[in-house]
Structure formats: C-alpha cells, structure tokens
Design goal:
Layout (H helix, E strand, L loop, with lengths): L1 H5 L4 E5 L5 E8 L3 H8 L10 H13 L4 E6 L8 E8 L5
Antiparallel strand pairs: 1-2, 2-4, 3-4
Length: 93
C-alpha cells in the first residue's frame, strides 16, 4: 500500500475468501504499537496493542457485519501482526 509505505508501514493483504464468505488477511511487518512505544522511549517488551485495538474497534463499529479477528501480534512476541476480516458472501443474482 503506497500510502502506508510512505509513512514507513509495511503491510500486505491476502484474499482468503471462500464460497461462503468474503475474507482477507492483513499482514503487517511493521507494528505501529511497537513503533509508538519506541517513540515514547519504552522498551520493546513494554509495547501494548492499544493502537490496533482502537483501529479494530473502529472497523467493527463502521462495518457491523464484518467479523474482525486478531491472529497474531508483535506485541505478543510474534514476528508479524495478522488480522482477519470476513463477512458472509452476498448473494448475487
């Protein structure tokens, strides 16, 4: 994503849709929570997932039919942050 890359965030999206649902994985190599903690002079181990929690809450409020799940977070000592977004596939006629 060019806009995110411009501010130093590396992310990718993978379509994991099925016949029953539209779904995608967001894979972030850059953890905004860790970057923010570093900017505040905190140790890497002190980073909390506050920013991604707020982002996911806003997404759920804006799109109530969207199921949003956290699969992995760098603040939980994972190598990447992975979020899954899914909704039932709409019937087309």
């Amino acid at each position: 994503m060019p806009g995110l890359a411009a501010v130093g965030i590396t992310t990718d999206f993978v379509d994991v849709s099925t016949e029953a649902e539209d779904a995608a994985l967001e894979i972030m190599l850059t953890c905004t929570c860790r970057v923010a903690a570093e900017g505040l002079g905190l140790a890497e181990t002190e980073a909390e997932p506050v920013l991604c929690e707020l982002d996911l809450l806003a997404t759920e409020r804006a799109f109530p039919d969207l199921d949003v799940r956290v699969l992995a977070r760098q603040t939980d000592r994972r190598n990447v942050c992975v979020f899954r977004f899914a909704r039932p596939r709409l019937e087309t006629t």
